[in-house]
Amino acid sequence: MSQQIPTLKLLLIGNSNVGKSSLLLRFTDDTFLPQEEVSATIGVDFKVSMMEVNGKMYKLTIWDTAGQERFRTLTSSYYRGAQGVILVYDVSNRDTFDALNTWWNEVNTYCSSPDVVKMIVGNKVDKESSRVVTYEEGANFARKLSTLFVECSAKTKVGVKQAFEELVEKIIETPSLWQKDAAPNSTVRMSADDDKEESGGDSCAC
Ligand SMILES: Nc1nc2c(ncn2[C@@H]2O[C@H](COP(=O)(O)OP(=O)(O)OP(=O)(O)O)[C@@H](O)[C@H]2O)c(=O)[nH]1
Prior knowledge:
Layout: E1 4-13, H1 20-29, E2 44-53, E3 56-65, H2 75-79, E4 84-90, H3 94-98, H4 100-110, E5 117-123, H5 135-144, E6 148-151, H6 160-172, H7 175-181, E7 187-189
Parallel strand pairs: 1-3, 1-4, 4-5, 5-6
Antiparallel strand pairs: 1-7, 2-3
Bound molecules: guanosine-5'-triphosphate.
Residues 16-22, 35, 38, 40-41, 66-68, 123-124, 126-127, 153-155 line the site of guanosine-5'-triphosphate.
Region (Disordered): 183-206
Family: Belongs to the small GTPase superfamily. Rab family.
Protein name: small monomeric GTPase
């Protein structure tokens, strides 16, 4: 029997090296690659994952974008149809925290709807001895922008599942994102194509 599964598009953005790909891999495959096996994202990559919330299944397409400017092309297309955006920084690198202002501006440029759910994520909390951005700084910044905030570590996995779950729950609680998602293009049937992105990316929540 076929089953209609709502699809959510989530986006990971932030400076190069903050751990976006590692967070994605930890969340989808519960894996962390050693440093020598990690390479910079070129352009964009995405993975698909299923999540159950309140007894209902959701299909997440999670887009991992390149932090390096030279690999960032077609930026507006990353944002098209996104319902949630995760802005990542590295708690052991202040430049990556300061850069959140620029990333925030990019989100607001390409996502005109204020309803798109945003979350600030401070990654690499396992590096406590080299931490330069405190929890309070991260939380205050997120409070000022009225966004969700989570600290986590892709390496130890602390906080990673919580971050994605909080984001998805908030999206589900935001009716305007769902009203747009009610378009036929944005639901999918369970099929062998499940690891491919459905072509209904035009139902832009932004
Ligand atoms: N200690 C520690 N290292 C991490 C963590 N997450 C990622 N790293 C390391 O940080 C480096 C960069 O990780 P990536 O996941 O490639 O970072 P990215 O943000 O996707 O980088 P770009 O693809 O260039 O945008 C790698 O050496 C990872 O092993 C973490 O939670 N703790």
